[in-house]
Structures
1.
Amino acid sequence: MFNLAHIHEAIAERVPDRDCLVFRDRRFDWAAVTDRSRRLADVLRAHGLGCRQERAELAGWESGQDHLALYLYNGNEYLEGMLGAYKARVAPLNVNYRYVEEELLYLFGDSCARALLYHARFAPTLARIRERLPEVRLWLQVSDDSGEPLLPGALDYEQALAEATPTPPSGLSPDDLYILYTGGTTGMPKGVLWRQEDVFRSALYTRPVSRVEEVLERAEVGGYVCLPTPPFMHGAAHWTALSIWAMGGSVIVQSRPERLDPDDIWSSVEREGVTLLNIVGDAFARPLVDQLDRKDYDLSSLRLLTSGGAILSAGTKAQLLERLPGVQIRDTLGSSESGAQGTQELRDPRSTTTGDFQLSPGNLVLQEDRSAPLVPGTGERGWLARVGRVPLGYLGDPEKTRATFPEIDGQRYAVPGDRALLLADGTLQLLGRESVTINTGGEKVFAEEVEHALKHHPEVYDAVVVGTPDERFGQCVTAIVQLRPAARTGEDELSAAAREHLAGYKIPRRFVFVASVARSPSGKADYRWARETAEAALTQG
């Protein structure tokens, strides 16, 4: 049975003494994580939480389970929270810890959260909106260094676990939900509903297997010691952690997860003998590269660096490979709505490219009208899609479910909105998300394509591209650029650099230079911020 809790329990029986989860000075073997997650499940069940209606009776956008919102920084409690919820047949969901009160109210309401697991430092924010959350029946507070007292009626997480009974889970089903809320950088966040078996096969364990026993035999051998550096509230991070667990590996959490601290990350790799490091694009890679130029570390254990969720540009890949000889880079393509869709694997810094991938099984490019698969080598733009094991839908939203997960010739597809070309040799060239496409003078320009081009310039540290209002062309391609310290590069030089890679109509006609490009904690571009920043700067200018 491909249920995430069942698989973790079965692996724990075979390797109980192996390190499972390490955070600061706390080391938890597989037996300990099993015990703690069972206790959390007991707490949830004691408060009446669980599965209320089986999957077969529900539409794709409906949930028959209670939901636990995880409002946490990275730490053992986050992954315990996910696993413990699964064991109680409760569906956990991710909360962006940067959200302000109105955004939190939207998310808790949209997700129908019945329980919250949160760090104490967020207690004052929750206290201000608590009266507007009458449906939440369980408040679990994780102690931290903030010194914030327990909210009235809340339970201390560690005390609650200590008083609970570690009862083995029962009634688990492959149909139990996995929920992932989208980032909301281009619109309101939506909860993607997956069957656990489908997300396991599409995103977490992409090797073809027919029996759980095959997974267990592989896990018994062991393997990776992994450090996912992004926040676990981002799918790429906890997908990596859950994938490593499915292979019987160990997950390491950096000591200072509240922000990106390159020294902390490289020190953790050195101390724990990390073999796999997971990052999100240039926003994580460039500070890590800079830190390697400042300080030496023993990184001899590191074998694989994976990235997903944002652009990892060719130049940055080359810099990583030059500083980490013997390490392989795996640039991955995927989304909350599709799972893993493609990879690019590199060892040679001379062969790096941006946005080129080999499609994973079950993935394809649909024609413009979505009527059929695109023929490779035609030069047509199409829609990146997945067929087969795809999400059930968006929580509470039948209209958007039908739009993103259409049925074509009797098969359901996931079409999240990414545009792509399929070359004659089968290589996929990712163009970008349709929702951030710029229409200038009737021509479509993909924001990410322009961002790729700008990042070829060595003095560009980061860049985000948006469309701003233009009287003549409707929209104008506008670049918000963060240069490296002491850089003297101007607009003309950046335009010339971009022209080496792009047609003339795609070249930014306006530039806004900023001290720092704002991104989400997961490293993804915040296009709403970028658009507001660009329009404000252009109005003032």
2.
Amino acid sequence: MTITEFKEFPMDMDAKLNYPKKNLNDGELFAIIKVETSLKCEDFQLFDFGSVGNGDIDCSNGLWIYAPATATKLSITHKLAGTIVNHLLPMQLKPATVYKMVIESGRQISRIEETLNYGYLVVKSNVDGSLFKISQNGNEIKSDYISTQPKTMTLAPGQYTYTVEVVDYETERGVFTIKNEESSNLTANLRSSMGSLSVNSSPEQGAYVNINGKRQERTTPATFPLRKGNYQITVYKDLYKQAESTVTVSAGEQAVYNAVLSANFAEVAVDAPAGAYVYIDGNQSGEGKWAGRLEAGMHTVEVEKASHVSFKTSVNLVNGEKKLVSVPPLTPIYGKLNVVTDPVYASVVIDGIEQTSKTPCVVKDVLVGDRKVKLVPASSEYETFETMVNISEGKITNLNKTFTKKPKAVAATVGSDFTDSRSNQVTRTHPGEPEMIAVKGGTFTMGSSSGDNDEKPVHSVTVSDFKIGKYEVTQAQWRAVMGSNPSYFKGDNLPVEKVSWDDCQEFIRKLNAATGKNYRLPTEAEWEYAARGGSRSNGYEYSGSNTLGDVAWYDSNSGNETHPVGRKKPNELGIYDMSGNVWEWCSDWYGSYSSGSQTNPKGAASGSYRVYRGGSWYGNAARCRVAFRHGNSPDDRRSILGFRLVLP
């Protein structure tokens, strides 16, 4: 081993600026001798500069010797190539200066080098949570989850196959090779396996959709996210033949299925007189002129009017036919009323119509049934008399009355008060009226910070006192007001459903006209306040409990049908079924919440959808939360939609 070259590099700044080291003996910066040799740096064992002190060796940038500037000779020891002893340096070294030295070995060096016997695989995926599986010769040898951050694995040299898979993405497969003591990089670029299906129906939208036999909550038109693949689609609507098709959904694309529904009905109009009721196949369908759709086939149409002879006929209907059933004038059924009074000459008023004859008299052609009769004495000294009289067909009914004189007037006491102890109760005078619960007004926090975006922002709302239905409006109550039952699931004590927001307004109009009261749908704020338990609220997630099954019928316990009202536990105010059973229409347009405090808010000023709340027998638990909101077109009718009433 000999030194064959030694020279100075004055322009190299490594010793002075880039990699300087200080000699602790004299405080000067070391010179750097950069050695060029075929020998490995790590095999040099000693660099000795004699009495002036030892320097240092650095193998990080090659073989560099940090030497004191006072050195005049150099001794080098290498564990395989031998030793150079007391070699005189060809020049005096300078502090912080770089020199080049070439060492050549005349010996053939043989060595056994240690090897790792493995390599590295650096792997990542464009989708977090991807499962990375490695196989060799058909056997899986390793699996791990990878993400967008690189992950290092050690593997023996060889060829491997791999798969990368994650839900909603296509599986990636491939081959890679590991070499000893080398690093390989692998990046999985997974493609989404999701697509979507848009379903429409004609000639009418609002049809139900089954995908692979499972009924979807949304009706047409609707778009459903689906994984790529083939799907069996069924679209159906009352009075139409269902349409079926197999649709292929591709990743990253939207498939479209336009279902054409064939009519399975005839359009029928019944020209009944005012005040008459129309019955189709024994079921009351309307009052007065009626029009609707009926399935093809034989049907019975009957028209009834109190105190008249009924009309009945059969019609055979064909799909697509428009049929008018003309009803001849109904023949009235009469009896007679013989009226005798004391004193005589009283006026007779029957059902609000004053008769021409004065008592005593026989009034002919009085319609049979219960008639309201008022007798007005000729003298104002006597009290007017009113009663109900039942008139029978072809018979004379007698009415005799001796009038009572009016009592003398008594002066009223000025300033007297009257308090009705039952002012908090609602006296029901009509079979269509619901049982009501009084709700004391107050302030509450409306919405949810952890719910869907339309439940935010959470805001303070104050509502006044009101009364709300203890139960959802039942089919018996609907029939008592409307004379019909549109519900899919039948039962007097089941909640009425398949009623639109518009239908509810018609029900309320008729009920208020019959009772003289002011029923209405609850505002969204009133509904949520009552559902939360009002001033008695315990802060439950659902109406009355944090355990949904205790208070609600929903998709996990309903058996895919509605249930009689009031079968589950009530909430803190004694109100039933505000979570589950059927969604409940509110009066508001569906819109965004305001962040500010509000008093008796009535929702958005306008919109396309009306709000409904509470979840249903078909919905999941999340939709039964008291803060959850939903909405749809005011003419939407489905078996999940019902309502309850409030009174101010």
